[in-house]
Write a structure and sequence with these properties.
Two copies of one chain form a homodimer. With 244 residues, the first copy, chain A, is an alpha+beta fold. Chain A is 21% helix and 30% strand.
Chain lengths: 244, 244
């Protein structure tokens, strides 16, 4: 039995999120089907993060066990031959004994893309959030810096989330101009449900001067979802990398 | 009666090209339907260029006549309210008397995008041609320069085209690095059927050292489709602008 670790990318536009759901086409169900086709085995699949419907990945990490004779490094090519064109395996290798993509993850890096011009928007409608307003990037960067650190992120967690411990460490939160996009990068040791999308919604509220950067501290300390900004839509979000 | 000129962009992925065809959803049929919805009138629509299925536009120009009371500059917003999300009107205005988007065009600018990295390809599958090979850009630029000028472009015209006169002027043909893409820009006074896609296919053949830049002259002089490179796929092609 060999455990395979694979790094995958996908355009989440046409999937009902990562996680398997009865009767729905999800990233997980599509991957499981492809792996079964290639190995002929039943399998269990683990992933670093469960992305929501329309959310993308450029560096999702999965693992599965197999008795197949396919060399670990060859799984990428073998799976790409049967996967649909919006899911690709970038790399595959033998995993360390007992490796689990989610529990062993030290850090996750998410990016969120905002597209601000009218021209070109049809090409980015599934890949970025269209927000054609003036934004004060300096204020957004200041607010982003205040989110860095170890905090109780209750205010940045979708209500109804089952997580008991809402303390997380954001090691980096940055707002960058990456033409044609505004890119918001968030790296942390773990994320609550919708946390990145609420962080981005809050930073965009600051950018639109509906909130000042200093208020971020109050939002964190208030531990109340209503204090933070809105949850931005899913299509701008990318799971970029998982660091072990 | 007012003649309206409008500049539009579209993602051509899910359309059977620009031109109306019975029983097919095309860019033209979708535009006509939207304009009729907004004006309540029957109409004729003219366009600068007929793009093929899966080909995109960032600056297609259309015109139509209307008795509507909508101010010419307001048509953009009115039409965008009823158009699907993959077609947008960027600008609308009153056209000069007798204006025809195709016959009055002096120059057309097309771009072709090539995506060369494995990582990220799922996001560009409908927007660029994936070609993961090493390319000699210097040789491509040299070949591109040789295509500039007034020539008989028979070798760069899909066989079966009805055009009698195959002499066209390419005022600019350039190969540029536009990360994450390689971008090939072609500006000319008119284009034969598939001409841009055959020019790009020929430049990529030079880039892959299957042809040397000097051979371009022979390809042009030979007036034989078989001498040029292959027709590259449609999804990398964009009608960028029409110059009047």
């Amino acid at each position: 039995m060999t455990r395979i670790k694979a790094t995958i990318e996908y355009d989440g536009t046409y999937y009902h999120g990562f996680q398997r759901q009865p009767g729905m086409t999800t990233i997980e169900s599509t991957l499981v089907e492809a792996i079964q086709k290639v190995t002929g085995e039943k399998l269990e699949l683990w992933a670093a993060g469960r992305t929501d419907a329309r959310v993308h990945a450029r560096g999702q990490v999965i693992a599965f066990d197999t008795n197949s004779s396919i060399p670990p490094g060859r799984f990428a090519r073998a799976l790409n031959a049967v996967l649909p064109e919006d899911i690709k395996v970038l790399q595959s290798e033998e995993a360390a004994f007992g490796f689990h993509p989610r529990y062993d993850a030290r850090l996750k890096h998410y990016s969120y893309l905002v597209y601000r011009q009218e021209a070109g928007r049809v090409f980015y409608r599934h890949q970025a959030y269209y927000l054609p307003y003036a934004l004060d990037l300096g204020a957004m960067q200041e607010a982003a810096a205040r989110l860095q650190g170890t905090h109780d992120f209750t205010s940045f967690c979708a209500s109804g989330s089952g997580a008991r411990n809402k303390i997380r460490t954001v090691v980096s939160c940055r707002v960058l101009e990456r033409p044609p996009f505004l890119q918001i990068n968030v790296v942390g040791d773990g994320f609550l449900y919708n946390m990145v999308r609420i962080i981005v919604g809050t930073l965009l509220k600051v950018g639109q001067k509906k909130m000042v950067p200093d208020q971020i501290d109050e939002v964190i300390l208030g531990r109340n979802r209503a204090l933070a900004g809105p949850t931005v839509p899913p299509q701008g979000l990318y799971l970029m990398a998982v660091i072990y």
